[in-house]
Every structure is written in C-alpha cells, then in structure tokens.
Here is the input.
Amino acid sequence: MNGRQFVYFMQGLTKAYPGAPKKLFENKKEKGTYPVPEHPGKQEPKPIHGFTTVVKKPFIRVWGPEYVNVALILDADDTIRRCVGEQQWPEKPADVQVIPGVKEKIEAWLKANNTNLLFGASNQSAVDKGRMTIAEVEACFAETNKQLGLDVPWLYSPWLPPKNITYCRKPHCGMGAQLIYEHKLLPSKCLYVGDSTSDKTFAQRCGFQYQHPKEFFGW
Here is the structure.
C-alpha cells in the first residue's frame, strides 16, 4: 500500500489566482463566499491518522510578478476619527471628528513610500445591530473624507456574527484580499493602521505590516 504524506501549513492568505471573484465582502449566507485558505483544524495530523509521514512547513505567501503596488490602509474609528456624539462610534455625520494632524502623517507616509494608494477597511456592525443604515454609514465616511481632505475609498463590513457569518469582517482577511486582488498589492510592502487586536490580527492574516495609531501618528 502506498503511504500518504500530509504537508501541514499554517493558516494564511494564499496567492491570488485568475478567476478569483472581484467582490469579496458579500454576505456569505445570502450570496455565497469566496475561496479562503483551508484551515488545518484544531488537531494536528499525526501518522496515527493514516499518514506514513507528517511534514511541517512554515506558510509562505507566493505572489505573481504583477503584485508590486504599495498602499496605506486605515481603520476608521479611534484611528483617524473620533465620535463627538452620544455613542461610542459615529452614527451620523455630526458625530464625526477627524483627529488633528492625521492628514499630514498620511501624506508624509505616501510620499516617503512613493505611492498614492490609500484605502480604508472598517467594521461597521451597527448596521446589523439595526442602529444604522448603509446610507448613514456611507454619509459618515463622506464626512470623514471631507474633514480629512482626502478621497479615501472605504471598504466596510456591516455584518455581525453569529447573525451573519462572513469573512469580510475583521479580523478575517476578506477586505484585505479584495484590496490585494483588485489593486495588485504586494502585502509585505503595505501598512495597515488600526487600534484594536482584531486590526493587528487582520494585518497579520493579510501579510500587511501593522502599526497602532499611537505609533503611526505619534500621539
């Protein structure tokens, strides 16, 4: 009987491929999902499972020659803006206050890295909670851009588990995967700035560099 070999890789985002869907942030339940890395499961494979050998190898991201672009990617709340309303996060444009000095730091990073690619990636679960509409979320982003003086394209996840299970919500890598695929980003050269543990995990899963806002903006 021929033996079987199991090669065990760490979980991560693999090389983008022809035919990958362009929109990767849609509701998994209603519209289907996009290809994601296979998870090795909670139990490591062992020869007792029927394999003659088990070889552990580190996960390595491999990108095609077209993946060369550099980008700065930002979280929104408590990263570049604060809420001056009654809630923890902005629910209407009047609640939005862009933190002083962030524009200058953003522009300096873009200039130093010879790129004009700037994006936002934010969880906006207030929609799923019934507190906000899509229109209100987008109005708050429009006000953020107005105060910031920069035209930031925002990706956001309106979903909240367990009601809606989706890979677009950070710390999952869906929004990052969309940016990488659509803009041919080289993740190791890109920087994600966010204030939470889920932001840091999101960056790690996408292969982005990561900085906390205090570090990036020098607060």
